[in-house]
């Protein structure tokens, strides 16, 4: 069975999104990338373990795929941006009852019960499934107990308020799978649910 891996940037005080327009992430996915070389290497290693991306409808419609397609074209010889090409190359799955068909290459739209559909996706043969989406999408996956591994990229900032991903979930316990601090100030904590 494949693992569903949720990777999110998060603040020290547990928020995945700020209320308002605050520059709190060490790297906010634009051209000003302040991650150190070791973190960039480890980030790319994660993408080599996946062969499918589960992507929220909203993120797909807001340009996630075109953003990374353009980055792969702009930086074809930059080893760090190998992940951008990987995003373009692997299968993408967008759960949505609003979309009838995909508008994106190598992307399928699924509809129906989220737990059933994602469970079927996890049961397929292949590599792990990376999840990208906003707080609402992540919260729904967490509440349904579908996430097998959390990768929290903890940024050295406290927001004092904002969006969380555990608001819909009951008490959950996790085991630490790994933790690594980086020179740029990011700490990546990996957790799995306790069965």
Automatic annotation (TrEMBL):
Record-annotated Bacterial bifunctional deaminase-reductase C-terminal domain positions: 2-188
Highest taxon listed in the record's lineage: Bacteria
GO biological process, one term: riboflavin biosynthetic process
Record GO terms (molecular function): 5-amino-6-(5-phosphoribosylamino)uracil reductase activity
Name of the protein described by the UniProt record: Deaminase
InterPro entries recorded: DHFR-like_dom_sf, RibDG_C, Riboflavin_Biosynth_HTPR
């Amino acid at each position: 069975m494949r693992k569903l891996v949720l990777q999110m940037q998060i603040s020290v005080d547990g928020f995945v999104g700020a209320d308002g327009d605050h520059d709190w992430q060490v790297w906010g996915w634009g051209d000003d990338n302040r991650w150190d070389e070791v973190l960039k290497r480890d980030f790319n290693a994660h993408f080599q373990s996946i062969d499918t991306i589960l992507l929220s409808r909203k993120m797909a419609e807001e340009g996630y795929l075109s953003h990374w397609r353009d980055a792969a074209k702009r930086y074809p010889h930059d080893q760090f941006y190998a992940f951008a090409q990987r995003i373009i190359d692997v299968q993408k799955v967008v759960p949505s009852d609003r979309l009838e068909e995909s508008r994106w290459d190598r992307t399928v739209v699924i509809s129906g019960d989220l737990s059933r559909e994602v469970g079927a996706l996890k049961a397929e043969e292949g590599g792990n499934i990376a999840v990208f989406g906003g707080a609402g999408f992540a919260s729904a996956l967490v509440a349904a107990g579908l996430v097998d591994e959390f990768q929290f990229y903890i940024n050295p900032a406290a927001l004092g308020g904002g969006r969380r991903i555990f608001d819909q979930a009951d008490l959950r316990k996790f085991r630490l799978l790994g933790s690594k601090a980086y020179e740029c100030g990011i700490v990546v904590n990996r957790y799995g649910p306790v069965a």
